[in-house]
Amino acid sequence: MVHNIMKEVEAQALALSTNRTGSEMLQELLGLSPLKPLCRVWAALRSNLRTVACHRCGVHVLQSALLQLPRLLGSAAEEEEEEKEEEDGNDGPTETLEELVLGLAAEVCDDFLFYCGDTHGSFVVRTLLQVLGGTVLESERARPRGSQSSVCDLPAAHVLNLPSEAQRAPARECKPADFEVPETFLNRLQDLSSCFLKDIAVFITDKISSFCLQVALQVLHCKLPQFCAHLCNAVISYLSTCSSSVDGSPLLLFLRDQTSSRLLEQVLLVLEPPRLQSLFEEHLQGQLQTLAAHPIANFPLQRLLDAVTTPELLSPVFEELSPVLEAVLAQGHPGVVIALVGACRRVGAYQAKVLELLLEAFHCAEPSSRQLACVPLFATLMAYEVYYGLTEEEGAVPAEHQVETASARALGEVTVLGSLLLQHLLHFSTPGLVLRSLGALTGLQLLALAQSPAGSHVLDAILTSPSVTRKQRRRVLQNLKGQYVALACSRHGSRVLDAIWSGAALGARKEIAAELGEKNQELIRDAFGHHVARNVALTTFLKRREAWEQQQGAVAKRRRALNSILED
């Protein structure tokens, strides 16, 4: 059916591509299309490339066509389609899919600055760079198909998909989906990337064009690292030769600019460790506290911290930032603190010191009894006095922690950054203090943490961290006894319970199943609970206990055997 529809669409490809409804239909069809019909539609659009690429709806048709390459590119797919064409008696287009892509790349290369600077055309450039490199970045894969077409009527600012400063992600990693491409693609990728060098100033300062360079750096980092390093050096060299800043390197001016700072974030993430070390020493050393306080420059600083992988770089960075952690939190830039903690986790240095500084920053270091409250404070990113609602007079002299008062208080709202902070701390070499604080939570508080979209990942860290022993894990999770039904009937809690079940011994599984069995009908009626009941094999447990135990024993035996193989 798709094959026949695509033959009808070919003659009207341009009109359909530039119509909202037609564009949506074409995107769906391209996602299902065999090779030859897709090539014919592509060839029909090629003579009107500029019109389609710079149209708010047409651009998504071109993107969808390009994103079919991982599915269609390759000898097996081409041979299959050739056989189909022979059966249908159609000659098909003279150009192969590879030739069409290379032709598109050549046309874009001829007018590179125009396409990169156009609000819609820049999307084609970014997708083309990924396809030529044989790597589709996570941001592209995560976008639902329908959302591509729905942006046809959005203003340009929304089309660019720019998060506000407060919504910027704490880290952006390159997690590509790789696929094989011919050598000609990589050659053309290098040709396109060379175009950035001709007008480097435009790609650094122009908001729209800058995104193309950012994507190029991510793709080149994965596929052509030497050329990526060359491009990074060109960016740094250009910025370093601009007019001097009053307070240091010219680079500092661009770190405070909204457009160029985003490009520099990507540069910092893809630089090799030796080059990153020299960049820090030549341009950033002595300026980190100023950058941490700036509403824009604190984000490139976070990327610098995300890129730290050596003790030689972490040492001066930690020495410079450690005295101002509380001030940075007070300024509303917790991402800097979380990134520094992440660097300590990754490098394996300064872990005890940074935890001590965090306790001081959240006002729970002294008296020592307050340290038991660190998990709720870290999770909510609130100081002790704020979290427990102490008056100014009560907070003037730090008082002992009141366990009864803390137990009676519901857990505050867990923030994403607070959850990330706890996950990092649980992966430290000695997470004992955080585990003791988690163990001090009541069952209801721990349940609230597990049911929270962000907090549930803290439970994941408890279950997966190699630093947490089985005994420590059991001591924390035992507080969930009596809460398993509520966990099972929660969107995020049910996922946590599944993870707990996967790692539980037979005795613990019996306890969980027995508690869930008391509310079997309630679980079966619940949207999330019935999945948990099926995973636990609750019906078998209630009706054929002996068979259930044999089944679970066999599962445990297979798991032990697998773990033994993995350890070897």
UniProtKB/TrEMBL annotation:
<dbReference type="Pfam" id="PF22493">
    <property type="entry name" value="PUF_NOP9"/>
</dbReference>
<dbReference type="GO" id="GO:0003723">
    <property type="term" value="F:RNA binding"/>
</dbReference>
<dbReference type="GO" id="GO:0000447">
    <property type="term" value="P:endonucleolytic cleavage in ITS1 to separate SSU-rRNA from 5.8S rRNA and LSU-rRNA from tricistronic rRNA transcript (SSU-rRNA, 5.8S rRNA, LSU-rRNA)"/>
</dbReference>
<dbReference type="GO" id="GO:0000472">
    <property type="term" value="P:endonucleolytic cleavage to generate mature 5'-end of SSU-rRNA from (SSU-rRNA, 5.8S rRNA, LSU-rRNA)"/>
</dbReference>
<feature type="region of interest" description="Disordered">
    <location>
        <begin position="75"/>
        <end position="95"/>
    </location>
</feature>
<dbReference type="GO" id="GO:0000056">
    <property type="term" value="P:ribosomal small subunit export from nucleus"/>
</dbReference>
<dbReference type="GO" id="GO:0030688">
    <property type="term" value="C:preribosome, small subunit precursor"/>
</dbReference>
<dbReference type="InterPro" id="IPR040000">
    <property type="entry name" value="NOP9"/>
</dbReference>
<dbReference type="GO" id="GO:0005730">
    <property type="term" value="C:nucleolus"/>
</dbReference>
<keyword id="KW-0677">Repeat</keyword>
<dbReference type="GO" id="GO:0000480">
    <property type="term" value="P:endonucleolytic cleavage in 5'-ETS of tricistronic rRNA transcript (SSU-rRNA, 5.8S rRNA, LSU-rRNA)"/>
</dbReference>
<dbReference type="InterPro" id="IPR016024">
    <property type="entry name" value="ARM-type_fold"/>
</dbReference>
<feature type="compositionally biased region" description="Acidic residues">
    <location>
        <begin position="77"/>
        <end position="90"/>
    </location>
</feature>
<dbReference type="GO" id="GO:0030686">
    <property type="term" value="C:90S preribosome"/>
</dbReference>
<dbReference type="InterPro" id="IPR011989">
    <property type="entry name" value="ARM-like"/>
</dbReference>
<dbReference type="InterPro" id="IPR001313">
    <property type="entry name" value="Pumilio_RNA-bd_rpt"/>
</dbReference>
<protein>
    <submittedName>
        <fullName>Nucleolar protein 9 isoform X3</fullName>
    </submittedName>
</protein>
